[in-house]
Amino acid sequence: MDGFLHGFSPTPLSGMCNETLLTVEEKTSASTLAACGVTMLILLVGNFVHRLHITWLPESLIAVVFGALLNLILWATPSVGDAFSLDMGFVVVVFSTFLNLVALPVIIFEAGWALRLRDFFSQLGYILGFAVVGTVISVLVIGSLMLQVREHLGITDDNVAFRTAFSYAALISSVDPVATLATFGSLNVDRLLFILVFGESQINDAVAITLFNAFNGKPATLGTLILRTLGYLFGSIGLGLGVGIIFVLILRFGKMIHSPVQEILFITLLSSFTFQLAEVVKMSGIITVLFCAILVSAYAGPHLSIDGMMLTSFLLKQLATLCELTIFLFCGFFAVGDNKWEDIITSLWLMLFVLIGRAVAVFPLGLLTNAMKYAVKSRLPAESKHMLSWKHMFMMWHGGLCRGGVSLWMAFEWGDWMEPEMKRRFTKATCFLILVFLVVFGGTTSAFMYLLQLPMGKQLENDELYGDEEDSSATRSSGKPWRMMMYLNRKVMIPLLVGGKKKDAGEQTLISDVIHSQDRTSGRVLERLGSGIAARRRSGNINLARACSSTHTGYEAQDVFDLFGTGDPAHIEQLEDISEMLQENSDEESLDSSMESSDREGEDCSATPSSMPSLIEIPTARP
Known about the structure:
The protein is an all-alpha fold. It is 73% helix and 0% strand. It has helices at residues 2-8, 21-51, 59-76, 88-113, 117-122, 124-148, 161-172, 178-187, 191-216, 222-254, 260-280, 285-299, 306-335, 341-376, 390-399, 405-411, 420-442, 445-452, 469-476, 480-497, 505-516, 541-549, 554-564, 572-621.
């Protein structure tokens, strides 16, 4: 970190140790005041953009522009350093601390929490293909191209050329389609396109971080490197799932369903706790938090109130939005000042390589995905309805080009093996790349959706990835991996984390009220979310949950997504799946009981003939 800061400013980080606590506090107060004021301006401008329906101007781009303005304000005032001189070392320390302690835990946890698990698992194999294989392809292509033009990129040391190229390739392969997903949510695009882009972006982070740590860590043989990488990846996943199980059990046995305030704050703090725990044990905080959030989202529903579920979704989404805006604010901040012509050249080369790497990853894998869907359509008829057209593939390529906080975070994590000037140069290039791609691709999502005439809005009112009831049952009964996962879920996870047929009465009533109440989609809660929330409840909170979980179109769909980050803020789909599996377990237990009863009756009947003669002979023995 010292070298990196030294590359930004003549004042190294160690210089901060010579400052008094009062000086540091004054700098922190001044910078916080300026950052909060600028963020409020971003939200104000975003309000006008939202009201005027300017879809080509994402809020994240507004944050980048105001970040550059913030840099000029702090540079011209003696708030952080002398007038016309900015202490970048102090700013980077503040940003790095905010990123690790606040922003990333909340953003990643919210992404896992808002994941619609039905859609995700219905396309899990294809998502893993794009996220794992696609990321590896992207890293190989970008790294190889960087080595071919390393002189133009300023990579002069042959001893670290390979590590520099491929560590940066892993760093820049982490996709962050915030602006694209926001547009997808507002346009109500078809679920296949949305879940492929969204699901890939989640798993892609785990793969990119794992590869980055492999190249950024200590040099090792190929075998040791593979083992270390797999241990880091699966260790982080296992830790996240383990922490998630523990916290769901705490929710279950702690009966937090009766305390909405405590349950909301408990889940919100879980993100930071899990992230820091992973960092302490030398695992990836991002990967751990992601899988912890997915598990908690899947099984916490029966132990939370409807109000608690919806307000948790709302709170996490708004905190994540604020953190994302702050990250883009700092991205614009770092893009201004201390720039060199070589930084622009490096950024242009890297933009070209990212475009090529993304194309080589998406289009061949898209064709392979269609081949796999075609091969299984006889057993899974629903797959034939969800083939990837070239328009889908183009939008996946387009939507996966934006970069964000995770890439910037990894740029701060380079080891001391890289020269300070190289760190400065590639970090600057990353900021430029994020800015340009946000403008070019984040701002043109809506235009390309209309240009390509992809279905959206009311055209997809009844769109379901898993098909109708018949197709759904076929999907759930086909494929050994799927059957094994469903068996493990029904026989192990549900009894452990939710309970069996002897469930707590409050939990059972909650599931029954939400799932089995009649006329689920008749309630309407959102008359106009732009000017305020008007809730029309027929029977309390259940209608609120039902209405927000039903399909929304047009203006409502945009606001539901902006408020909750998902079309199912009460996680009713997860509750439905849990209720269905509980019913299956109950039916099996009833069947087993009836069979045992029949067996006992059969044994009694088989024993009767041997005893009958004595019973019959007794009366005849009498006089």
